Amino acid sequence: MSTTQSERLRELLEPLVSSKELDLEEIEVASVGRKRVLRVVIDSDDGVDLDQIADVSRELSEKLDESDAMGEGEYTLEVGSPGAERPLTEHRHYLRAVGRLVKFQLTEGGELTARILEVDDEGVDLEVPGVKGRKPTARRLTFDAIAKARVEVEFNRKDKKEEEA
Questions:
Q1: Which of 85, 102, 164 is nearest to 139 (CA)?
Q2: Counting beta carbons within 10 angstroms of the beta carbon of residue 31, is it exposed (0 to 12), middle (13 to 18) or buried (19 or more)?
Q3: 75-84, 114-123, 149-158, range with greatest mean pLDDT
Q4: pTM for this one?
Q5: Do 116 and 138 form a contact (C-beta atoms < 8 A)?
């Protein structure tokens, strides 16, 4: 049986989120002054839009009101998406980041910024941007060689659809 509030909340809320073909990425209960905030992060392979977030928020609120999972007292429910610079912690996160520029912290030390080309069960195939006019190079990283990974924001990135056209 679950012992922490976050685990109990996950058990309560995950079936509802999954029924919408979404992933429950994160649950956090935080104290902000005297108030409590329940933050829920949802995502899918295609991302989430504001309408989906609003629908899920309403349904999660109803589910929470029916239960005692948040205990007595007021709290604020915040439902959102992982954001642009999301950390990659699960295999599905890497799959969703194909085509994106990612900053890797390597387990052996050092950093690498590269675009994810492909993902399989063992690791990622990357395109490392060329420096000073040189051509990009290919590189393979296994998951055990990655200490941390985070998507980088690109303001002038070509959209995948533009590249395919």
A1: 102
A2: exposed
A3: 114-123
A4: 0.71
A5: no
